[in-house]
């Protein structure tokens, strides 16, 4: 019963030393891996973040996990995240594998109820997104998109063409060739 609150100074000293060193190592590795590691979270980023937290906690609290093993595990997770994001920037198939596609929920003032139901988004959440973006009525809305990180983006207007904000949103109307991309006659 006496081991519940205090097991000895050795565990306290170990926790202080390992805690400071593991924390410093994690911060250095995150800084070295770039801003993408700490970006807004989609499902892939959430998994990496939870795994990092779990690994750090195990390193700090488990006496059977040496500091070097914990730092190596943290480096491995950060390295794998770096490789996957590097590949996803270069290969569309990898990007689609690790990230959800955005979903069109409102188009030209009309709620797309089937998409809302599939994504489990309520009318109240849509209206909240409109208010946050200064849109006073559904009829004034060009589009509302559920982004791959779970946020709702409301647009007052959209355009067609390759430069349209809806160009990569499945279910959005097909984009027309952008006139500004045509070469001008000499």
From TrEMBL:
Keywords: Cell membrane, Membrane, Transmembrane, Transmembrane helix. GO terms for cellular component: plasma membrane. It is a multi-pass membrane protein. The keyword DNA-binding does not apply. InterPro entries: DUF421 (IPR007353), UPF0702_alpha/beta_dom_sf (IPR023090), YetF_N (IPR048454). Residues 91-159 form the YetF C-terminal domain. It comes from the Bacteria. The chain crosses the membrane at residues 12-30, 67-89. It is found in: Cell membrane. Gene3D superfamilies: bsu07140 like domains. Residues 159-186 are annotated as: Disordered. Residues 20-86 form the YetF-like N-terminal transmembrane domain. It holds the Pfam family YetF_N. The keyword Transmembrane helix applies. Residues 176-186 have a biased composition (Basic and acidic residues). Its main location: membrane. Belongs to the UPF0702 family. This is Uncharacterized membrane protein YcaP, DUF421 family. It comes from Hymenobacter actinosclerus.
